[in-house]
Amino acid sequence: ECARAALRILSREPERVAALHNISQYMRDGLINLGVKIIKAQTPIIPIYTYQDEKTFLACKMLFERGVYVNPVISPATPIGQSLLRTSYTATHTKAQMDFAMKQIKEVLDILQNA
């Protein structure tokens, strides 16, 4: 029943899907322009390469402390040496929130790169 209700909402309000697509594209473009290595896909889930498990956990902790929630993805969910931060976005995220998240992600990755 919940799935049918969700499908009805999507069919009545296609602007939600368009907003989510625009938000996802904005984040992908912004992260790439900042030099952040991501997996390019057309979904609201944007994986960011961190490569090392320890660096991934540190990045998650540091981002959480800065107000940005991400999920760690490490082996065996990824091949060894290809750890990721899993970021995801919704149609209700604002440009200000996305800009804030991008800034924090870039700063944390730079700190860990130089550590």
The mean pLDDT is 94
In DSSP terms (H or I, runs of 4 or more residues), the helix count works out at 4
CATH superfamily: Aspartate Aminotransferase, domain 1
End-to-end CA span: 50 Å
| CATH third-tier fold name | Aspartate Aminotransferase, domain 1
Protein model, in words:
By secondary structure, the chain is of the alpha+beta class. The protein has a single domain, classed as Aspartate Aminotransferase, domain 1. It is built from four helices and three strands, in the order ααβαββα. A three-stranded antiparallel beta sheet has the order 1-3-2. The relative contact order is 0.17.
Short summary:
The protein is an alpha+beta fold and 115 residues long. The chain contains four helices and three strands, in the order ααβαββα. It has one domain: Alpha-Beta Complex (Aspartate Aminotransferase, domain 1), CATH 3.90.1150.10.
Name the features.
single chain, 115 residues, alpha+beta, Aspartate Aminotransferase, domain 1, three-stranded antiparallel β-sheet, 4 helices, 3 strands, 55% helix, globular
